[in-house]
Amino acid sequence: MNPRLSGVIGWPIGHSRSPALHGHWLARYGINGAYVALPVHPDHVAEALRALPLLGFVGCNVTVPHKEAAFRAVDHVDRVAARMGAVNTIVVRPDGTLEGRNTDGEGFLKHLQASAPDWVPTDRPVLVLGAGGAARAIVGTLADIGVPEVRIANRTDARAEALAREFGGPLKPWPWDHREEALSGCSLVVNTTQLGMAGHPALDLPLDRLPADGTVCDIVYTPLETTLLADARRRGLTAVDGLGMLLHQARAGFAAWFGVEPAVDDELRRAVLGRPIP
Length: 278
Ligand code: ATR
Fold this sequence. Notes:
By secondary structure, the chain is α/β, with parallel strands linked by helices. It contains eleven helices and twelve strands.
């Protein structure tokens, strides 16, 4: 039987951890398949995706900067991808049409629930920093699961305001310069900005106002232990790192393409990081 083929399209793509991630699962479950990095220039996203069924691919992941172009190129989208206007997972249907999904929010939530099982979504506000693509996935998910107030603070305040207007419901824009006050009464704070990533400044957010049983989540995973998470741990708060979101968002695609529900565990984390977890 021919191997099942999948991969990840992006530009550039060399940095992607997805081939190591899916490659580990393929080996672990003894699946006759391959998952490859596919550098696709921004001018050719739709053509490349159209070629997937012709080349025998069962689907692919989509990463920056192609998630919006992929959304426009596919034949069907699910509710979450439609709200996001972005697709990160494509499944080739038996009739050769392309189904677009967005599993970033689901990946965030599964990882949060696994890492902070005592966190209760419905009792207190949550603060989200940032208003980019990752923030969109996360605030949508938080609203879906009944968080009563989702405060959004973004360096460019107008983007936080636009996001809150668009999603409505519990979303509430908060001025970036007053982000520290926004921690008051929150059960959770999530950093979705690039602050804290290698090569970027640290996030300046003293955590004094976060309640003592609060949870701090950073979607940055290079480094795994950001200054924000180290500070949270020092204070005895629950710290949730960014790698798990990446690992969990990959599960739905792998299950759809290869027919196995894969496990997210330390073995996978080691495989993706390429070294032991500190
Ligand atoms: P992603 O899709 O990963 O969320 P993005 O859409 O480029 O990426 O969003 C990056 C986020 O990090 C934005 O919220 C951005 O703030 P702006 O909307 O003001 O650009 C935030 N960000 C990036 N660099 C920042 C910095 N130095 N200080 C504060 N926020 C920063």
